[in-house]
Amino acid sequence: MEKAAIILAGGFSKRFGQDKGLVKLASKPLVLHVLERAKTIADEVLVIVSSKKQKEDYSSYIPEKNWIIIDNGKVRSPLIGALTGFSNTSAEYSLLLPCDTPFISIKVIELLFETCVNVDACIPRWPNDNIEPLQAVYKTKSALKASKQALKQSEMRLLNMIQHQKRVRYLSTTVIQQLDPNLITFFNINTKKDLSRAIKLAQDGLNKNF
Predict the structure, then answer these.
(1) Is the C-alpha dihedral spanning 83, 67, 36, 100 positive or negative?
(2) What are the phi and psi torsion angles at 164 (to 5°)?
(3) Which tens digits make up the pLDDT trace of 81-127?
(4) Please, what is the average pLDDT of the chain?
(5) Considering the entire predicted model, what is its pTM?
(6) What own/partner pairs with CB < 8 Å and gap ≥ 24 does 46-49 have?
(7) How is residue 3 annotated by DSSP?
(8) Could you state, in order of their start, the residue ranges of all structural domains in the chain?
(9) Smaller CB count within 10 Å for the chain: N or C?
(10) What angle do CA 178, 183, 188 make, to 5 degrees?
(11) Is the pLDDT of residue 209 over 50?
(12) Exposed e or buried b per residue across 140-155, where buried means at least 16 C-beta atoms within 10 angstroms of its C-beta
C-alpha cells in the first residue's frame, strides 16, 4: 500500500491572527510537528498552501520544496486543498491532516490506514456523530473523483466530498481511545489560549509519539 499524507495549510487563521502553520511550539512551527509525524508512516508528504508568498515562507522550514504545493483554486476551502493534494500524489491512499494538530498519534494514523483497506474512506466519528474529515484516510482515486463531483455542483465542504463516496467506514473515537486515551490526537490550535494549553501539554510530555 502506497501512502501519502496531505497537510492543509492554506487557511486564513482568522481567530489566531497569523498563519497558524508557522506558529512555534517548542521552538518548531506547528506544520513541522505534523509533517515529522506524518512522514514516519507516509511514503510522501505534501503541504498544500494558498499563495507563492506562503510557499516561500514554508520553504524556510521544509527543505524539500517539492513537498509544498500551491492549491489550484481561487476560493480557499479545505476541499480545494484536498483536491490539490489528491491530484498531486500517485499513492493509493491519502491521509488528510490540518497544519495545527501537533500531537497527532502515529498509532491512530496507522490504524486509519489499516481500516481504510477495501473502502473509499476511513473517518473518525464521535459519539454525537460529529466526524473528523481532516484526520482521516481516503482512497486517493475515489476521493479525487468525489472532490471533483462536489465542486462541479458548487459544493465546497469536505462533507460534500464524503457524501459522493460510496464506501465510507467510520471509526468510533471510543475505539481510538484505546490507543490515545485523552484523544489528544485531535487537539488543534485555533487561538492563543489553545497555544498556551499546547505548551503545557508539551511540557507535561504528552507530545511524544504515542
Answers:
(1) negative
(2) -90, 0
(3) 999 999 999 999 999 999 999 999 999 999 999 999 999 999 999 99
(4) 90
(5) 0.93
(6) 46/4, 46/5, 46/6, 46/7, 46/85, 46/88, 46/89, 47/7, 47/9, 47/99, 48/6, 48/7, 48/8, 48/9, 48/10, 48/81, 48/82, 48/84, 48/85, 49/9, 49/10
(7) E
(8) 3-203
(9) N
(10) 155
(11) no
(12) bebbbbbbeebbeeeb
User: Which three three-digit cell numbers place residue 123?
Assistant: 473517518
User: SS3 of 177, please?
Assistant: coil
Contacts of 171 (CB under 8 A, 6+ apart): 111, 112, 115, 122, 123, 124, 125
Which residue bears the cell 513537498? 67
* Residue 68 predicted with pLDDT over 50: yes
Cell of 188: 488543534
CATH superfamily of 3-203: Spore Coat Polysaccharide Biosynthesis Protein SpsA; Chain A (3.90.550.10)
How far is Cα 86 from Cα 71, in angstroms, rounded to an integer? 11
